Every structure is written in C-alpha cells, then in structure tokens.
C-alpha cells in the first residue's frame, strides 16, 4: 500500500494534537489508545523498516500521561511513533466570546 493511500499521508507539524491508536491486525504496539502532541525535538523522518509503507514517516510524540507498550514495558512519556499509528485530532474551535447584538 502506498503512503498516499493512507489517511495519515499528510505531514503533521510540531504542536499537532494526535491520538495514538492500536493496530487492527494485532494487539499493539501500545496497550491503549491515548492522546499526545507532536514534539518539536526533530522533524518527522522516514521509517527505516521492511514493514513500513512507502514514504511512511515517524514522529516524536509527547504523551498526555505515561504509557506502557503492548509488551508491558514502560512507562514512557514520549516515543517515536509511526504515522500509521497516529490519528490527527481536530483543532478545538476558537472561543470568540459572547455574540453582540446591535
């Protein structure tokens, strides 16, 4: 499958809110799905692994709360996560204050 066929095909920028998701084919790579933020520690880089999708990127993600991986290791506060395991969260709407009527 080509990276362009995946919903994660666009690059996520530092500060983006994401949900780290489980793989539907196996019980991992994390115990739970949870929230986090793309970290600015480094730019996303291509995944160097034979099972990576063509052009797949990995990101540093800072977790909202410490997490354990599917092997029970941890707790981790941040990790490099493959793009296929990240779902972008919609930005919250801007609060514009009370409406004013003339």
Characteristics:
31% strand, mainly beta, 0% helix, 6-stranded antiparallel β-sheet, 102 residues
Taking all residues together, what is the mean pLDDT? 85
Number of helical segments?
0
Secondary structure class reads: mainly beta
Helix content: under 10%
* DSSP summary, beta strand count: 6
Describe the largest sheet. Answer: 6 strands, antiparallel
Shape: globular
Low-confidence runs = 1-8
Cα separation of the termini: 56 Å
Q: What is the radius of gyration?
A: 16 Å
Strand content: 25-35%
Descriptive report:
The chain is mainly beta and 102 residues long. The chain has strands spanning 17-20, 34-38, 45-46, 57-67, 76-82, 86-88. Strands 1, 2, 3, 4, 5 and 6 form a six-stranded antiparallel sheet that branches. Residues 1-8 have low confidence and may be disordered.
